[in-house]
Amino acid sequence: MSFTLAIVGRPNVGKSTLFNRLVGKRLALVDDQPGVTRDLREGSARLGDLKFTIIDTAGLEMATDESLEGRMRMLTERAVQMADACLFLIDARSGVLPADEIFADILRKKNAHVILAANKAEGKAGEAGLMEAYSLGLGEPIGLSAEHGEGMSDLALALRPLITQAEEEAEDYTPEVDVDLPDDEDEDGEVEVEYIPPTRSKPLQIAVVGRPNAGKSTLINKILGEDRLLTGPEAGITRDAISVMTEWSGTPMRIFDTAGMRKKAKVQDKLEKLSVSDGLRAVKFAEVVVVLLDVDIPFEQQDLRIADLAEREGRAVVLAVNKWDLEGDKQDKLKKLKEQFGRLLPQLRGAPLITVSALTGRGLERLHDAIVEAHQVWNRRIGTSALNRWLVGMLEQHPPPAPQGKRIKLRYITQVKARPPGFVVMASHPDLLPASYSRYLVNGLREDFDMPGTPIRLFMRSQN
Ligand code: GDP
Ligand code: GDP
């Protein structure tokens, strides 16, 4: 999971404006219809070379019985809990108001990592407010203008150490440069004890996402079949998640039910937008994301966005083309679908594409098998010696370039994590290695170790 930053502060200080600026077009998940928005928005943010997840707490208009203050408090507390750090915004033009003090208190009590910023600080009108912000006792405030894009490099400066620290803490372990074979490897270098199949207490978590009317409910109901709801729909597996537990062809699975959620919300319009935010939560929940496409309108913008998000979040992805029963020329259609897939979702290279009919049940066995296989691949661990033998071959076949006359030596590779598979390569001058070479290695790993449909992470580390 990526580093998560929550933007908190009283209404009107510019939280949404900043959110939109940082998220850009990557997830324009703006939905201002009262009562429809879930109260916390999330998006993938980018600031210079920093990438992180951002949560916006601006959804205070939700109709509830509580007081504004109560709702602010609750939302903020939730956001703080979910986030690695908080960006606390005040309005530089109005200075520090009593409501700001309330937020400062919450943040202090929760012991949150806080970056304090005075927004609307463009021009002279903001100067006094910026100075006043010191009085909150949360350190030096950054002057920002979310609207005009000012202060963004100061924000990046404040964020970078927090992100670095969080990443270091999240790292499973630092690889030891040690070419001795670990004990659990056989001669081929494959790790023997690798995949623990899903159990009732640790079911395979899947999410079925896709545009409205793609057939998500139909598919989930078909899967549940006679076994219907071993534990019933329940909230709270992850925050707000609604999931159902079932055993699908012998595999214990927990299915995140976005369709059911929508029905629960009793929302008839704006289905399009809502399903995007549902999808976002679903992706966070899932180990394997099933992107359900409608055969009549496959690879819609929305499908592409959610598939891309799943990849970036490191989830295994299976594409399922639904309503296959309606298709006349199946051969021809399949060819077209494969072509579109390769062109529109190159980042998911090798992910399975399964044709199904949720209505008749055809293809569901194959879908099940593809999900289980994707899960296995996602969990895969490859032995260090096999990896290093492979690396030697890759280097011989296609040596790394020597930019600026410096030879880049790739010395050693090891897998540092699974779910999804992550590898570290020790190299001299890793910063000089072109992205194309990393892609060559990733594609090679994918093909030679048979890891279709899973994101593969490759980290370069410096070692001379
Ligand atoms: P939120 O309620 O905290 O999400 O605040 P909004 O993002 O909706 O912004 C509230 C108002 O402040 C809007 O009218 C914005 O256009 C305005 N605003 C946001 N950022 C800035 C800024 O940097 N400078 C100025 N002058 N106005 C801003
Ligand atoms: P959701 O919005 O993604 O949950 O979609 P639904 O499950 O509600 O399905 C939308 C419509 O498509 C319904 O009328 C379904 O009967 C229909 N549908 C779903 N799956 C199939 C299928 O495999 N074949 C056909 N012909 N229709 C389907």
TrEMBL record:
Pfam families reported in the protein's UniProt record: KH_dom-like, MMR_HSR1
Gene Ontology process terms (BP): ribosome biogenesis
SUPFAM superfamilies named among the record's database cross-references: P-loop containing nucleoside triphosphate hydrolases (SSF52540)
Entry keyword annotation includes Repeat: yes
Domain EngA-type G: 3-167, 204-379
Described function: GTPase that plays an essential role in the late steps of ribosome biogenesis.
Family in the record: Belongs to the TRAFAC class TrmE-Era-EngA-EngB-Septin-like GTPase superfamily. EngA (Der) GTPase family.
Assembly notes: Associates with the 50S ribosomal subunit.
Protein name: GTPase Der
Species, as recorded: Litoreibacter arenae DSM 19593
